[in-house]
Structures
1.
Amino acid sequence: MKKNRPIQALNEKARAIQSLAEGEQATVEALQEGPPAMPVGCTTIFDTGWETNPRPTYPVGNCQSSAKDFHGCAGDCWWPAQVPDGLTNHEDFDKQCPNVARDWRVLKYD
Amino acid sequence: MSSKTTRLLAVAVLLMGMNAGNAFAKDMFYYIGYGMVQVIDGDKDAIVADIPVDGWLRESDFSADRQFLYVTAKRHLIHKIDLGEQRVVSTIDVSSDGWDRFIYGFDLAPDGKSAFVNLVSRSTQKGQAVAAAPVLAQIDLEDGRILRSIEVPWGSVALVSVNNASSIYVIGKDIVRVDVSAEEMKLVDTFPMFDKQWNILPLWDNTRDNGGVFMANYYTPEFMGLLSIDTGSGEISDIRLDGAPVFAYSVIRSPDKKKVYAVMDELIVIDLESRSYEAVLPIPGGTHYAINVSSDGGKVYVSGGGSTTIVYDAKSLKPIKVLQMEVDGMDFRRLPF
Amino acid sequence: MTDNLLCWADYRVIRNAGEPVLFAVEDASLFALSEEAHETLCRWRRCEFIDLDEIPLPDQELLAGLRDARVLLPVSGEQQLLPRLEPGTVPLSTLVLEVAQDCNLRCTYCYAEAGTYGAAPCLLAPDTAREAVRYLLDQSGDREQVTLVFFGGEPLLNMQAVRAATREAISYGGELGKRVQFSLTTNGTLLNAGIVNFLHEHRVSVAVSLDGPRHVHDRNRPDALGNGSYDAVVSRLGMLLEDSPAPVAARVTLAPDQWHRVVEVFDHLVGLGFHEVGIAPVSPVTTALLPTPAEETALLSSFRVLARRFVDEAKKGRILPFANILDVLGRLHLGQTKSVSCGAGFGYLALDAKGSLFPCHRLAGEADFCVGNLTGGIDTDRINSCLGSLNRGRDQSCSGCWARTLCAGGCHYENNLRENQLGLPRGTSCGFIRGWLDLGIKTYAELRTDGAIEAMSRRLAQRAQC
């Protein structure tokens, strides 16, 4: 959060309004510039438990958070659409629930 | 006495024992977790200390004198942990001067005062995002200052220093060799992987635990292979495995160099002589990221991904113990004393 | 005239712990102001029009900042109005099934006349339940996920219909490639192992109506013989809570003379193991249940205590499972504005046990609010006319209120009850609603300035989209 700003956005709407005025919409895309390559984006074989889970272990459903692979994906933005990204917007997301299998209820992720 | 105090005392005793010069290697394992490093005594396979560390941890490396463990956090912090005191003694941030920098690949330099890092960087200028070309940089561990750097290909994720750190291999789509022996770093060589359709995710660099050999598995459309880099000679070798590929995140070689253990949803045992899969055992509870082996080769550890560490008997491949870790984890490193 | 000629948008400055927080009404955006910015704002507020080019520095810079925040708007700009929603144009997202218009309890405050909604006790036929599920899915447009709510009366009195609807939702939803989420509100007295297995198997989000400790609950929720139901509920809770794949919530209703007990009630329910606790002041189904100003003040102060605790917990990285504050924080977090107060008739419908459709579960059984049936579908003109007659002129009476984009007129059922049945003047609950939203904004501002909101922001956003 930027300190000492005389008018500081608090909620998401305020933030969007201010960044609209400032024309700063491209920050998030920065890491994706340059030729498409690792590590920003992974192949399908490496992240089990997310898109499909053919193995006889939990989670049973598809596209559910996987207790076993959750933070590994969130931190490095492997699946930015499904978990908060740890590189740009939510670098301390893991702190609310550092043990997903035990404390997943805190996440209310369903 | 609180259990925490007991743990600390236990470790202090262990460390004193170490100085007495034990004939047999004793293993200490370090669980690289979320907001925490947990210390495991390899004799008892018990958690003996918790070291709070800020952020989600990724790379780790031990100092040559085994006094310190360096861990990277949130891809931009580097914490120095004093293993005797069991606490973080300093932290540096590679982001500075309006640049967000992200570490993908970390290797301590032999001088103990600097480290090599692979950095991706971005900034905002006049409301526009700017991404700088990735660099291999040598940074000062006191203050995070970049001492020197050289542009390297996009998509690199791991660094391996070879020939007494005269060269650094930067591993990504291909492996490029950077000569760092002179003041000016130079790209000297490329070992192709992308054109050979290799697909590799070498996020678990346990070169030190693996007898000085960097080892990672890769996949082609047809088979799984093992890439290894001997840090002494700098030789890159490649072992192609027979049989349908089994998916694994990370691998480690047995101390007798006869087998390789790999892990993802299964514990996989690979026989190096026949270059084939000897066993593929589903792991109760599912995916794990990291694998390690005791110095005497008797026990195999799978860990990370979730919050469990499972200890297997290497001979029978039966689980001996399941450790419930305090937090989820990324890696599981071994330091023999 | 240049684009730099500006006029003031509608806003309200709320002081949180002395710090000025600006709520811009049309956008529902929230800004923290420095004292200097606030002082400049107050000084220039007296000018109806501001020409930025004419303002000396440093005021010019601060006023330009307020323009960027859309607190000052170009005079030449067009006024942005929220798009007007038409019933029938919004794909259906939630259908409430009154599976049993009957109940084994006789709660003192029940708005559905012992669960019957004023008619003879009646159960929803399994065939009708199946037909209703197909209607929900057929009318859901391009939504990939819809919600089916089992309600009553007491829905567990008609498990046959619950099971039939669930099976149909899975098979027909599967055919259409849509996912159905289930939720069920129960008094908990009829739970058994078989039912709990079923609820767990289908990840049904269960809300148990439990009003707190025995002495509070039993006064509110006796059975037909007048005996309290607390023990019957609590003895069955364990199996429901154990290994539940979906969160289990406590749904509390309190009469005005119990409002000072909110904190005690909350603590008791969290202690019983509920994953979330939501507390509702009772609807005044009789004038005896109308609160005094002192009781309303007591309710707000109790909520203030819980909001304070929510902040303290959040600073330690924990979430106090207080549903009311989570809901309001979620909406404030996104800055959601509304042109209608709720989804009733717009993507949200209720079906009574006889197969008639109503804008919402609370209006079920009110003949004036019947808006169609499963065979003929909904009559959008009926929705417009019944909600229209209830809300005629409300836009205007709300137009001067700073909370209008957050509240949008309040609950249809509650308004109908107060204004048409009890004959009260409009706006008897507005003071309470504004007090609650004011508390929500202060709580949000406090969490935000301490950085505690970051960790829960995703959860809040997700909640607001439900």
2.
Amino acid sequence: MSSSVKMGLIMTVLAGMAGSLATAQDLRGPETFSSITNPSERSRALFVEAGRVIQHPRCLNCHPVGDRPTQGNDGHPHSPLVVRSADDKGAIGSRCTTCHQNANYEPSGVPGHPLWHVAPKSMAWQTKSLAQICQQIKDPRRNGGKTLAAIHEHMANDSLVGWAWMPGGNREPAPGTQAQFGALIAAWIQAGAACPAS
Amino acid sequence: MSITLNINGTRREFDGDPDTPLLWVIREDVGLTGTKYGCGIAQCGACTVHVDGQTLRSCSAPVSAVAGRQVTTIEGLSSRAAKAVQAAWVKLDVVQCGYCQSGQIMSATALLEKKPKPSDTDIDHAMAGNICRCATYQRIRAAIHAASAQLAG
């Protein structure tokens, strides 16, 4: 076997490994956790798996603690400077829709969705532990008055949440699919909606 | 399929690719070159126009997004706030090289049309997306306050 053929085979194997690493972004389904017989323990494990989506940059960037959203996988401040304003859709003269249209716009790389906005302050996730986020998600005083069923509906079917899996450009999508994420949240609720300790 | 546009009160038909940036249509098809190309990625604000009274970066919007909506470019500004802004810009000699100023005036006008007495913070937030390489920012802020005073008088 010539050295060039060997190198070709090595590159093929390496490419295959890279493909495997990419699929590491898959989510584990609820059935993966069925062997955990204690419902609370199973519920916590399900939420930790769902937390891989919740704490992914595609979700965290628009759940800022302050007034300014972040961007990128490193969560750098949104450029240009934008602020949430009273309706979470930007300041006068610099609304979200000044730049973000109804769909991702590949010629400029600017992402878009008809409902583009940042999450209300009470739903801030940045800098918080998964346990804190879990308690917050369940708290009607901080989750927009939602029941657990409404939380599931939001996570599983809201189209702006769904943007996280279709972010366009070179943005990394959230792990798995929205359907898989919704199934995890449903199973978490069914098992008691327990929160992780940390 | 043709897209019907309204630019500065004039109805126009566009027969090209619906994904074409609005900026190209304004400049190349309609021939209104006051709206500038700066960065092409919604980072500098030179291409700012108004759509139904709100600012929009025309480099980052497909022409199909404004079908049936009212587009206003720098050439079509005519509101009371716009006239106050233009007068203040001249009075304070805001412009240096001038390339960004169409976008600056579009954003300043949109601000004053919604908030005739803006604070410095309102101005900073409204204008943050409009970059000026000549750094005329202090004169821009002063001119917006001057236009506001004129509107109040």
3.
Amino acid sequence: MYLRAGIDSLPRMSLDSISLARSAVPGFAIAIAVLIAGLLLALTVGRYPVSLGDLLSVLYAKAAGHRADVAPAVESVIWQVRGPRVLAAMLVGAALAVAGTAFQGLFRNPLVSPDILGASSGAALGAVVGIYLSLSVFAIQAVAFLGGLIAVGVVYVIGASVRSRDPILVLVLTGVVVGSLFGAGVGLVKYLADPYNQLPAMTFWLLGSLSATGVSDLLPLFGPVAAGAAVLVALRWRMNVMSLPEEEARALGVATGPLRIAIVAAATLVTSASVATAGIIGWVGLVVPHLARSLVGPDFARLLPAAAILGGGYLLLIDTLARTMAQVEIPLGILTAVIGTPFFIWLLASVQKNWS
Amino acid sequence: MILEGDKLTIGYPDRVVGAGLDVQLAKGEVLALLGPNGGGKTTLLKTLLGLLAPKAGEVRLDGVALSSRTVRERARLIAYVPQTHVATFAFSVEAVVLMGRTAHGDLFARPTSDDRRVAAHMLDRLGIAELAQRPYTMISGGERQLVLLARALAQEPQFIVLDEPTANLDFGNQGKVMREIRALAASGLGVLFTTHDPNHALRAADRAYLLRGGERIAEGPVRKILTRERLEALYGAPVQMITDGSGTAFIPG
Amino acid sequence: MIDRRTLIAGLSAALIAPRAASAETMTDAAGRTVPVPAKVSRVFPAGPPAAILLYTLAPEMLIGWPRANRPEECAYMLPEICTRPEVGRITGRGNTANLETLLALKPDLILDVGSTSATFVSLADRVQEQTNIPYALLDGRFAGIANSYRSLGALIGRAEDAEKLARYTEDTLKTITGQIEPISVSERPKVYYARGPRGLATGLGGSINVETIELLGRNVAGETQGGLANVSIEQILLWNPDVIVTIDQEFAATVRNDPSWASVKAVRDNRVHLSPKMPFGWVDFPPSVNRLIGLWWLAKILYPERFPEDLRALTQDFYSRFYHVTPSAAQIDHVLAGRD
């Protein structure tokens, strides 16, 4: 290649002089610090008093293979109640943040959240139908998960069958419409539900909560989240290009159609699994990508991992608040909205330079 | 190597914009596409790039139909410089240019040091190396156009297609881009650009292709094709031609 | 430090050992195997029906109430038990109780009385697994109350007292159903159970909330099976019940003057009855053992000739056996009037 010959004749440039805009290291350091702080706080704080000493001796005892000399209730709290809840909070937070980041790139709009294609509405409908039919907890979660996948599937099929020069816009509009439809379905099921036994359960689920998380919830959550997140993280370099207008992306050599399906599928997988486990938790997929962007910049190669780490820490901190702030549990969805809204307004005002 | 369109019928799913069009572009030459708005310039350009499927006829590159190449292969042969636009995310200039290297890596590839070298070289070549770390959204329109050009060059293509490259530029930058286009052809690339300004065609192109209402009105070497009469017929409006010792210029009448 | 550790270790061992030694289990109403704790002194009620069941049998073991009681209600209960703290409802019903809070309260047993559908069975299993505290799910329906008492008695080591309450339940049910049996279903009065301030919510066929009504009369909303539901006034006009039973004072007061209800037979015949509700509803609210006295009340309303028993004496008896109090005559008047 004629250009290559030219390049090879240039003096060798060191990577330092063409290093990235500003180092992402401080940003990542902050994200990791938030996660670790959240983890330590979450494990030691709670309604049941567990001291740091107890925590460490239980962990050490497990690793060394002998019984810890703490009250058995403490072990129950650490392994069965608080431990799984903490892990779930990290997974759900990371999942929603990663899905939100991916969708913001895919839809070329920083105001997009993972619910835009109706995954949450579909999962909500699945869950309330499951509660209405008095299914077991596992079955309710499974139906919710399927509901999320089906909703996005419907949106995608309808969107793809409408021929248009702007496939993204069609997807968004279809998502809004289908999401509304499923939302109406949720309203109907709530109306038909038994106000004594079923309705409180539905209401609480719809507001988002990790309160009954046990070990058995972790595998159904971890599987889809790991799979979907792995795909998104692997594709993060391509996401930069996908955030360009359709024609530019194709001219740069990217097969936008299949890649779009892959990203939507992966993001929907993680979102559906999160909603099936924890109910509807908004604002995480919207706020955390922005926070991450202000820490490491808009390049998706760095943004996606940073959002995952930050999302895990963010939801962990909020969930810790949810279970310790008052005598009763505060639904997660309410807290994320109450904290997220002013946060977002502040972000809008101060960090505007990061997007046009 | 030749990029050619053979008896193309171009248009969109719901309408035909032009028919029976033949276009050729060889490496090392510059072809200017002129015509009034809505005449089919951009449609033809996108069809030649492979972004729009021709409704009839075929686009061939080096004798092979463009449609038989994957999107990735095409990107390594033809590059597209769109009109500048407002971007959603404030990627750094260097990150933008690096995106030009996408077709040289596989699906999960990260930019290699080789990629970074090419990107840096292209920035340097266009004289905008000092902009590398600036956010793309915070540079001037002219600089943005050059960044998009650098990105296209980073694809290391054989052909470059530019859509109205001077549309949003100030007077000084217009000249700069036109000079750059000549330099690209001189270094062996085939260049196609659309323009509203016959003067730019005169200055930078070897051949001109006049397109009106989806029909080719004339095609040939610029000095021969760009006459006052032809331009008046093309734009349907009076045109004035001024000649002096240093060159020719056209002004709307 | 070392002394404290050995002390804790010793206590833990002491606590664990008897638990391990007692490998006794029992089967609850949902068919689940529940380990019987060696000694029970603290019980956590998973919802209002469980709280009441426990209060009637072993009030001192009640850790707290799902919702705090109102002072007016405490006049009809043991004051020091009535004022025990609010502990929230457990997982699945609205989920206000945190599992850690539950563990911090150190219950020996979790008691749940109510629905045995798959949702609640799986919830019970999960909580038992996560907290290692035995979770018993018992039946709250009339037919199951006696057994529930016996099961609970076995679990908490109060078999004798439980047997007495179980006998009372069985005798009451036998007497009342025996008296009505000769009356064919079509001759039984049509009853509408009005819930809510506008009276437009009711219980469908088979719902535990209308068990009292369906045992004694005909539930106008009984054709459709289900739980609670909202209905329209037109539907009620169509049903044209002979008797209306409600627990809502406001509804009882306004329905007489409401033109849309005027043509309903029960309203025309002035047969709108306000159910007593102190300290717990007699017909519902919540659907637990508190309804036993309501059976007498409604029986006397629907079939006055067949039930000559003295309601005041029955009330005295019931309140002393189940609520552990002796209400004064004035208090009984107050209760029977359906007042707060």
